C-alpha cells in the first residue's frame, strides 16, 4: 500500500500514474490470456494506489495538498468510471465469455461487470456516448467541489458566556475562545450537538440551528440544483426514468415504489408515538420555562416545539424518564477503554484477533506495502480541513493480484469527529459517540473480513473514486454495522465498555439498566425524521423541479420548498425560511437517492439480531454471522446472504417490535 499523506506535487504524480495504468490496461486487454482477470488486477491495483489521494483529500493537514487531492479525486473518478463505460473494453470482455470461467466467483464477476457496463452506458455510441461521458465528468467535478466546500468550512457561531448559559463547563475548552468571555461554537458534531442540547437560550439554539442549516448554502445551494439536473439528464441518457430509478435498480428494493411502500408503512406505525411524543415535549418545554430551566421564546407560541428545541428537549426527556445524564455518563467512556472493549467484543463473538502496530506512522511504512494482515486506522478527532462527518473509508480493496500471484488484503480507516481530549481531561465520549464508534467499527469489520478475489466484490462506497459498481447493494451496506449496534445495549457488553476514567469503578448497574432502557427514546420522532430525509432524497432525485409525489400531495418548486412540504406532511416542526440542510448533507453526494438504505438495512439488521436474542455473546452464531454476512462481500446477493443466515426471508416484525411499533400499527 502506498503512503497515505501526500504533498501537492505527489498528488499530481500519483494521479497521472494511476490514470495511465488504467488506460494502458484497457488498451492491452485484448491481448490478455484472461481479460477479466487482467482487468480485475489492474483495477484493484489502481484502487490501492489511490489511497493516499483519498486520505489527503479527506484528512490532509496541508491546505494546498488537500485542494490538489480533492481535484484529483474527480479526475480519478472519471478514470475509473471510464473503464466501465468503454465500449471497446465491453467488446473484449464479451468476447472473452466464450472461455469458461475458472469458478463460480469468476462467473459472477463476469456477469456483474458486463451488466454494470451496460447499466452505465457502455452500449451507447456516437454523440449519445459523448453526452453521457460529459455529464458523468460534470457530476464528478461538482460533487467533489460540494464535499471540498464542506470539508474546508470553518464556520463557528460566536456567543457571550451568558448566551451559553446551561452549556457544561467541560465543553468550553473545545470552543474557540474569542476573549472578553466570548466563545465561538464550531459547526462540528462534538461542539454543535451538546450546545443545542444544553443552551437554555432559545435565541442561542435558534442561531446555531440556522447556521448549521445554512452551512455552505451560498456555495453548495447552486451546486445542489446543478447536480440534480445533471443526474436527471444522465439517467435519461442511460435509459432510466430518473436518477432514483437508476440507483434503486442496483439495490435489493429494485425500484422507488418499494421504498415508498416501506416508508409509508413505518410512518403509519410511527404516527401514534410521534404525536404523543411531540405533545409530551410541548408540555416539557412549558414546564422548563416555568421552572427557569429554559429562556422563553420571543415568538407568539413560546411553548411550541421548534426544530432547534428538539435536541435539548429529547435530552431532558431522556434524563427525566430514564435517569440518564450524558454529561455524567461520559466519565465512564474514555476513548481508549472503549476501543479496547469493542475490540475484545469482536474478538470474542466473531473469532477475530487484533494487534496494534507499535508506533505506526501516519504514512504507511515500506515494510507494510504488501501487508500480511488486514489493516485499519482510527482518525477519531475533528480538525480544520478534515472531513467533518463520521464514516469508514476503504483504502485498499480485497482482490487477487494476478501479476504478483497473491491475494491483496483489504484496509480501511475510520474518519471520525468525536469529542477530543483537552489539556485537563482525556477524550471522554458521550454515549451517542460510543454507539457511533461501534457502528463505524462494524463497517471496519465488514470491510476487513472480505475474502473477495475481485475488487468489484470488495467493501466500498462512493467516498472513494473507484467505488462505482463495487461492494454490496447500498441498501445492504448498513446491515452489518446496524446489527452490531445491538451489542452496545446488552447489559453484559455495556458493563465491559464502561469504567470510570479516574477511579476505575465499573459503570453502575442502574446506569447500565437506564442506558439500555433509553435506547429507543422517542422512536416516533426519530423514524419520522429519518423518513423525511429519505423521502426528500428520493423525491428530488425523481425529476423536477417541480418535485412531485402525488400520494403525499407534494408539488415543490425548489429543494427548500420540498423540505418544508415533506416536513409538513409528516407533522415535523417546520424548518426556518431561507435554510436548506441539503447543502450541508454529506449523503447528498455519497448516498444520492439511497438515503433510505438506512431504513431498509435497519429492518434486516433487527431481524438478524433475533438469532442472538437468547445469548448476545453466542460464538456459534457469531461465527455464522461472520461467514454468511461479513466474509462474502458482494460475492453473493444480499437477499441470499440474509436468507442463508436467517434460514428464511427477512421479516419487518423484529424491527417493529424493537421500536415499539406493531404490525397492526403498520397496516
Automatic annotation (TrEMBL):
Domain Peptidase M3A/M3B catalytic: 196-659
InterPro entries in alphabetical order: MetalloPept_cat_dom_sf, Neurolysin/TOP_dom2, Pept_M3A_M3B, Pept_M3A_M3B_dom
Cofactor note as given: Binds 1 zinc ion.
Gene Ontology molecular function: any one: metalloendopeptidase activity
Highest taxon of the lineage: Eukaryota
One GO term (biological process): proteolysis
Pfam families: Peptidase_M3
Cofactor: Zn(2+)
Keywords tagged on the record: Hydrolase, Metal-binding, Metalloprotease, Protease, Zinc
PANTHER family (alphabetical): PROTEASE M3 THIMET OLIGOPEPTIDASE-RELATED (PTHR11804), THIMET OLIGOPEPTIDASE-RELATED (PTHR11804:SF82)
Family classification: Belongs to the peptidase M3 family.
Name used for this protein in its record: Thimet oligopeptidase
Top-level taxonomy: Eukaryota, Apusozoa, Apusomonadida, Apusomonadidae, Thecamonas
